[in-house]
Amino acid sequence: MVSSTNTRYWNELTQTAPRERLDAIHLEKIRHMVGWAYEHSPLHRRIYEEAGIKPFDIRTWDDYYFRLPFTDKPDYLRDQEHSGRGFGGLALPTEHWQQYFHTTGTTGRFLNEVFTQYEMHKAGSQYCYAFQDFGLRPGDSMYFCFDWGMWIGLWSFYWGARDFGLMIVSGGGAHSQQRVRDILELRPALVVGTPTYLMHLAEVARGQGLDLRDAGVRMIGGGGEAGFSIPVTRQKLAELWGTDLIHDAYGVGECLQIAQSCREWAGGVHVIEDVYHSYSVDPETGDPITESGAVGENVVTSYTHFAQPFIKYRTHDLVRRDEHPDHGCGWTWVHLPGVVLGRADFMVTIRGVNVYPTAVENLIGEVEGLTHHYELHVSRQDSMDRMLVKVEAGASGVNREALARQLSEHLHRSLGVRLETEVLEPGSLPRYELKAKRIFDHRPPDERPTVAIAKRPTGAGP
């Protein structure tokens, strides 16, 4: 697909296409996917028939936005439990399957996921746009800090590395000290992990009297958390690893939806519009959001997942959207500044103020003497939601109470609401190799907010 090793585009024809052309392509692909799902997926046929919709009814964008029902994770989970097949939303029989995964379970029950060889290839190809733009080329080496479990996240990164022609070095099964030694010895061009774990590796190296900057790593990246696109976390990673080439990937694994940052890094990621469509809705009403810069829930349609179609799928991720980005990379694909700002089904409102976890993380990083290791604990008292921010101090023996007061004042000035704070001794909080668990909701289940779409609780359009 790449026309020259000197180009920054993996597919220049679509990466630089005008919005009008991209929208026309999207509508045609969406109509095709709706027809496929109606004919092959009992779940989708049932959802569409309940809404009185046939595939030929979807002719225009208004038909898609206002007539086609939403789908949501609970739809697939119910179908998984009651279909007798162990999977939800299936549209291809078992002879087409090649690999099985399930969700990490951070939002509830496991959702079982199945992929064909084609789907694995296409999921991986989404990374090639970023690899090319960041200056990697076939033959460069990549080191994985990943233990190859049932979480699809970095598996798809691995598929992309194979598609692109990178030499792959696996750190699977190795402990952190061994991974530090591997990286310093093998000097890979790219190291992949979550932002939390890559900072942890740098800490481990320093504890051994080593410096990962000596490895000459040109690029670091990965996904699974917000840190790669949070300015203070990103700056810390750049200092620890000695590179400004920091890649971020945002994905919804079940529907093979992955967004990538470009080399210019304008504070977010580009939607990979070759393989899926994305738009924003009001979480309460389901209406499309057209106001520039407004926060809305990301809704996606995958063009490459035929075994389990995901069409007009509610991610519950809150994003801002720039439909016409112009920050020097040349990509015309939609840009999501700040990547995921929070969750529509979690976002905490403290005394009338919406608090996004990414905002809290960024503000923690602005207080000298604190680390990037933190937890947010949400509780309810006297019918009011409260948030306790726990964060580790950067060194032992400091005045932790004074640091907590300083953090509290900084959060208050920046967010407009006062949060409780607690500063802990270094090493008090757990370390994670995959997704770090940051948010702990202690409210009774029946007192946690839910997000509903009008007419049908788990999926109908407005």
Helices and strands in order:
Blueprint: H1 12-15, H2 19-40, H3 42-50, H4 61-66, H5 73-82, E1 99-102, E2 112-115, H6 117-134, E3 141-144, H7 153-164, E4 167-170, H8 176-186, E5 190-192, H9 195-207, E6 219-223, H10 231-241, E7 246-252, E8 257-260, E9 268-271, E10 276-281, E11 296-302, E12 313-319, E13 335-337, E14 342-343, E15 348-350, E16 353-355, H11 357-364, E17 370-381, E18 384-393, H12 400-415, E19 420-424, E20 439-441
Parallel strand pairs: 3-4, 3-5, 5-6, 6-7, 17-20, 18-19
Antiparallel strand pairs: 1-2, 7-8, 8-9, 9-13, 10-11, 11-12, 12-14, 15-16, 17-18
Helix pairs in contact: 2-3, 6-7, 8-9, 9-10, 11-12
Short description:
By secondary structure, the chain is of the alpha/beta class. It is built from twelve helices and 20 strands. The chain folds into two domains: 1-345, Rossmann fold (3-Layer(aba) Sandwich), CATH 3.40.50; 348-447, GMP Synthetase, Chain A, domain 3 (2-Layer Sandwich), CATH 3.30.300.30.
